[in-house]
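Incident review: delayed structure delivery

Summary: a single-chain prediction request sat in the queue longer than the usual turnaround. Root cause was a stuck worker, restarted by the on-call engineer. No data loss occurred. The affected request and its eventual output are reproduced below so the record is complete for anyone auditing the incident later.

Affected input:
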Amino acid sequence: MLTGTLTKIILAVVIFGAIMLLTNMLVGGASSFSNAMLCHMFSNIRHTWESVCLDTPIGDACIADSTEAVTSMNVPLVGCGTNRIAFTETTVNGTADLLADEASMCWNKFGSGKLNVLWMEGENPSMCSSFFSNLGEVEMTAKDITERLKSRIYGTAVNCTDSDVCCEPGFYCDETDTRYCSKEEANPYRCLAGTTRGTYNTCESGYQEVSIVGFWECINKLPDLVCDAPYEYDESLTNPSSSLDTEACQYETSKIEINRPDIFIPFEGEPPSEPNAYLCKLCRQVVSGTEIYALPNECTLLEDANPEECTVEITYADFLGLGTRTYFSFKRATENGGYLVEPDDATESVSGHISIFVEYLDSFTGTRKSDAVRNLPQECAAGTFLDSCNGCLEPCLRTLGTFAYLGFGGAGIVSKIGTLVMTDFRFKVLGVEDPLGVTSCLNCLAANAMGADLLACEDKLLICVYQY
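Output delivered after worker restart:
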């Protein structure tokens, strides 16, 4: 019988052979495919191939960032070359329109931040596009580009922000993905039957799931959970055989209803009238011969938002995520350094003859690949970036969502911790609940950045605007 490792090696060879055959077929007939389509296809194949290769005995060679890597077995990135646009744009709006098309194509063809593609020496970052503009005396700022991109429609998407019409009763627009409506659910039966965020496990580790018949049988397993202090559960106040009277919490001479946790099986229409018609799931652990019961885990249920009521137009600014995954760099040939600017910045401008470069920064955070400092084109304000923040995931994940002011080259941007970090790490914390956590995160990033100007914990686009 083949071992698991040998099976993976054989599978990898078969996949690679199929890839090479497909490459020859597509390159021979590439005229029927756009370069962007080909690049997107081979980016997915490269990502899959490297993932398989990493699980084989030669995995270290697969991820080696040098000429020692198995380049002869590497999937070529067909159609992923730089799109060098020959004609010269002459207006701000025309420049912004061309940039919108090129940047969105760049983001899509390398997998929209979901793939690891640019593994080999010299590939990362990838210059997707370069083009030229002659603006004459007109000044162009990042804000001018942003305003134009906000006015252009990229497409449509479901967005449930107006949850009154987008979501079913009891559901609310999901904060993390507005295509979905969500609600917190305590009933494990509904969690198991529905679509949840992440994998749902009924019980915590060490507990075993058990099903119990009878309303009061379920309640009696949780005497410490069904009454709020100073009230205490008094089983003598119940009549398990025939009654659903729930005034079983007593304090001195006062009685109130128990907290009825939503642990019972969903029922159609009215709930059963007989206590023994109920069923519940609980979690049980036996410690030194004593049974300990706990409530099941809660879950977040997800439902698709109503597409008929909640389809909205998405602008290029929205799609590119200006200021979150797409950043602007402004630099002049007559000055040293440059500026990384916010999307709405109107203080830094360029005019006359300019070149624009669209750079895809591939992040390898979460992979086995070692961090590496990558060189950016000299026309960009930043010279280098670190392609992973693997070493700082633990301290920085605790502070995700915290915002800080991060200085670079005399200018500043507002950025999420762990997303894009400037080299000198000057910062002013804004609205932080855990300042020690932010400090720990930044100290880790500073120690691991190895002199790099930028840190890409996720895939990014960098738009480098250069004035001659």
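Verification: The radius of gyration is 29 Å.
Action items: add queue-age alerting; document worker restart procedure.
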